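Researcher: Re-running this chain for the archive, since the previous output was lost when a drive failed. Same request as before.
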Amino acid sequence: MNYKRSSLLFENAKRFIPGGVNSPVRAFKSVGGSPIFIDKAKGSYLYDVDGNRYIDYISSWGPMILGHAFKPILDAIKRRLEKGTSFGIPTEIESKIAKLAIDMVPNIEKIRFVNSGTEACMSAIRLARGFTKKEKIIKFKGCYHGHADSFLIQAGSGAITFGSPDSPGVTQGTAKDTLLSNYNDIDSVLEIFKKNKNKIAAVIIEPVAGNMGCIVPKVGFLESLREICDQNKSLLIFDEVMTGFRLSRGGAQERLSINADIVTFGKVIGGGLPVGAFASTNQIMDKLAPEGDIYQAGTLSGNPIAMEAGYTILSILNNDTKIFKSLDRKTQKLHFEMESLLNKSNIPFSINSFGSMISLHFTEGPVIDFNSSALGNNNYFKKYFHEMLNAGIYLPPSPFESYFLNDALSYEDIDYTLNTFENVLKRMVI
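Model: Regenerated structure tokens:
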């Protein structure tokens, strides 16, 4: 494929934007080469500035669950635009989407909207600390909860030690209150609680992880987390920025039958526009200002255009839950047939999927946490990514990102993807 204009635009962007991108994964650092620049999208397809068409397997990293330029959402945005873009004053649509989200998701009674998943998770942690009067939190290696300082942490010599900053600019003072555990390893969590008795405000986790590839929780892992938090009067926070309104009508809580104390949302809830949210019971949410003394605010939070887009997509998903079954079937077809093709090759692999999330790891063993995901053969991944891209299939440009399918994806698209994949495997000799 010809990427001439994309390459020129990338070189120009680097003059004005750090690294030429506004989010690091877009820069193709993990796979090499220059990123493509998108001009437009429709349904399951992306179209770049050079006129190339791609089957899209990232769906804007999750939000475009119904496909790009979905007409009911575009129409809703257009209607709202005619009334103005922002007021900084309450609007009815905020309450409408709040009620709808509460009706859809188990175990929440109030919700507050923000502008990103990062804001949602940052605010959830502040709320948990204010509610419990404790300061420390536990997060899991490989789980991404946005770029707030508290989350950019690596754990020194072990999971039970105080954290140390994993990014310049994060202070030691911030790092010491974030404790790092291993996903799918309940013993590491127990050890941290033992070493920090009565100090842990909350455990925050992606119930199905998507930032080390798709990682599925072991049977009993989340149930044990729930029990440990109850025993220690700590809050369990589900980061459902990816999984919320994607894995089911009620997200991971509904799909896995586990209640969290606080849930964060993003991606799908904005219908393609920047929206985040966090939600809980009345008892916890009423601690927020102006009702309580825990402060949180945002000038553009509850933006009417974003709320209209979000209300429209949630209404569709609420009224037609067959969409989730459709997405599951498409993902299962992709998973099983990729697995069948890989079994005929000599290439080591592990495929994980859950609902409409899936990832392929070029590893010798199963991928159950960050350490096992990091064992993947990046040379295989680079070749795989670029060969698929050149055939018109856009995959996550990093081995540590989940694919997100959208329901506009046709079985013809999937068949083409699988045929291409079969041919790529034949050429994947490192």
